[in-house]
Amino acid sequence: MSETFFPEYPPNISDENLQTLKNLAIDWSLSHGLVIRPPTNLSNNSFVMHAPVSLFPSPFPRKTYDEAIELQPAFNLLFHRLSQDFEFITHAIKEITGVDDFVDNLYKIYLKVKEEGIVQPISLGLHRSDYLLQVPPNATEANILQVEFNTISSSFSSLSSLTGDLHKQSTKYFNSSELLKKDSLPLNDSMTSLPKGLAKAHELYGSPNAVVMMVVIDEERNAFDQRWIEYNLLNNHTVHIIRKTLAEINDQGKLDSKTKALIIDGKEVAVTYFRSGYSPEQHPTKKEWDARLLIERSKSIKCPSISYQLVGAKKVQQLLAMPGIVEKYVTDPTEAKKLRASFAGLHPLDSSPEGEAAVKLAMKNPESYVMKPQREGGGNNIYANDIPPMLSKLSVSERSSYILMDLIQPPLMKNIILRQGELIKGEMISELGIYGIFIGGEGENEVIMNEIGGHLLRTKGRKTNEGGVATGFAVIDSPLLI
Ligand code: ADP
Ligand code: MG
Ligand code: MG
Question: What does the entry list as the binding residues for Mg(2+) (predicted)?
């Protein structure tokens, strides 16, 4: 990829000023809650450290940023429509069940509550659609390609907004590049957009004294990103959040036998907001699965509901790329075309002719692909030379629970990142996420709220395959629109 795609960057700055800027970034982060818990000594909750951040905002083409923003309401609605389609979900999950216990368990809960009758037709989506840039051969402009659409536990909305503020502050000290103009650093309302969605869902539930329950893990390192949601929800909307683990919900939660209200600690839960519940490790025992079933059976508004979580599967993303699928759910052809233009090549790995062809391509040319299981949270994908041995090892039905995606090769940009007090300079890649706030009712066309909720930019070294911040691969950044 052309190394001159982006302008000369980062700003030329003396070593002495760089140290000053580093200390400023650390102290500003500590002063403003741009923090995470340290990796060790988690049982002592009085320690914090600065979040991993980039020292400078990263250049990002304004046109593609605008395009990603514009796509969000259409993606929000598309995923709502998919979530209402029982046959589509069943078709998508069919390939995975029997070989993936985690998806099996989710699907069983989905079937069970469907059979019993859904008592809460409203669902809240706090989504995030993630993109990488790609410059097509011989082109001078980049376009965006979707990496994935997250329907559960989309994180970093609060710390992302704070990182934008950090960059605005640091450019006041060292405005050493003419690129660092005020209007190049876009506003980011992700700090308040998620609380706004939670507040609206709480209002729709219709019980002013009820609370929002955040489903959390013990010893969460990213607790402050979550706490900011709690503070904003209370300060801007007068709604309280309680934090509970799945095990605690199983032990302490009850359903009102008549109304199916979810009651915990004597409080009624209006909205259940999952910041856990997306991976097998978060369900070590039957207790956690029982808690999920209890929540799903309840009248509380779920964020996400089990059907929203299921349509966030990578398998669904691959199916959407098949001919005619997006077009079935998005009736406006121009809009369907725009959504489709953001899709990278996606292939099944099942026993269909397409699946067999994809296996051959991946065996022959593995460095052009990423193989993905139905997992969230980073660190699960298989890249390049690790793909052929994996494919050879798996049975056909095991293989079917993965998808194959064309590797996106984004343009490189130079920046300096700050992690655990250390500066690392080098060639970087950025991934843009756009938050979507959606509230849907029963049926594919009932839309109560459909908004764009701000953005997240994550930046990582060029040689790093994965992209998660929590998993230690990337840092939080903000876009410098060029
Ligand atoms: P998860 O749900 O675990 O976050 P992703 O699909 O987002 O799974 O993959 C994790 C990371 O892997 C992404 O953040 C990105 O950095 C990288 N990645 C995923 N798909 C691709 C792709 N098609 N091309 C290049 N990198 C990718
Ligand atoms: Mg994900
Ligand atoms: Mg991801």
Answer: 148, 150, 376
CA distance 50 to 421: 8
* Residue 35 marked ligand-binding: no
Contact 57, 420 (CB under 8 A): no
Q: Which atom of ligand 1 is nearest to the CA of 410?
A: 25
470 is in an annotated binding site: yes
Helix H or strand E encompassing 29: helix 15-32
Instruction: Please give the distance, rounded to the nearest whole angstrom, from the Cα atom of residue 40 to the centre of ligand 3.
Output: 25
CATH class of segment(s) 346-407: alpha beta
How far apart are the two ends of the chain, measured CA to CA in Å? 19
Find out whether the beta carbon of 407 lies less than 6 Å from any atom of ligand 1: yes
DSSP state at residue 276:
S
Tell me the per-residue pLDDT of 271-327, one tens digit each, with 9 for 90 and over: 999 999 999 999 999 999 999 999 999 999 999 999 999 999 999 999 999 999 999
So which residues are the catalytic ones?
Answer: 128, 148, 150, 155, 314, 372, 376-377, 458
| Euclidean distance between CA atoms 157 and 193, whole angstroms | 9
